[in-house]
Amino acid sequence: MPEGTNVLVLQNTNDMAVQVEAAGHHPVGAVDGYVDAIGTFLSGDLGGGFEHLGESAGHVGSLVTGGNPLGPTTTPNVSQPSPHHTVAVFDGGTEGVGHDPHNYSDYLTSHTSTEVAAFEASVGAGGYAGPGTVYVIDVSVPE
């Protein structure tokens, strides 16, 4: 996004599309960590190699313990990683296996977050008011 662009990311903890994508995160992370460790060991950096092995082990541990694939981000919250970037993680509906736009619009019409309200005000101040409804849903997995 261009600098200064206000962004609102909505993440429904019940959205199966996000959960399925996230489920692949731990196995891929485990393999990536292991491959990185081998390369780092071969380059002579023992400390870095062990660090990568630790990262790989963390992913394996999450798989074994059956942790939620979305990890700690499944706790409903609103955060602002930067002044123009708001992330709202919410426990929304399950309609359409959680992926239906109504789950997201229901959150937007009922939230009590001052950060989300500020984003909505910035959109209005930018002149984005008019007839109809626009849905933009980002189903990317948080890192």
Q: What's the mean pLDDT score?
A: 77
- SS element count, helices: 5
**Residue windows where pLDDT falls under 50 for at least 5 positions:** 69-73
Proportion in β-strands: 5-15%
Number of strands: 3
Using only C-alpha atoms, the radius of gyration works out to 19 Å
Q: Rough shape?
A: elongated
Order of helices and strands: EHHHEEHH
Helicity, in percent?
40-55%
Task: Tell me the number of structural domains.
Answer: 2
Main sheet record: 3 strands, mixed
The strand order across the widest sheet is 1-3-2
Q: What is the structural class?
A: alpha+beta
Could you tell me how far the N terminus lies from the C terminus, measured between alpha carbons in angstroms?
17 Å
Task: Report what the structure shows.
- With 143 residues, this protein is α+β, with helices and mostly antiparallel strands.
- It folds into 2 domains: 67 residues, no CATH class; 40 residues.
- The chain is 47% helix and 13% strand.
- It is built from 5 helices and 3 strands, in the order βαααββαα.
- The protein is elongated and about 60 Å long.
- About 3% of the residues have low confidence.
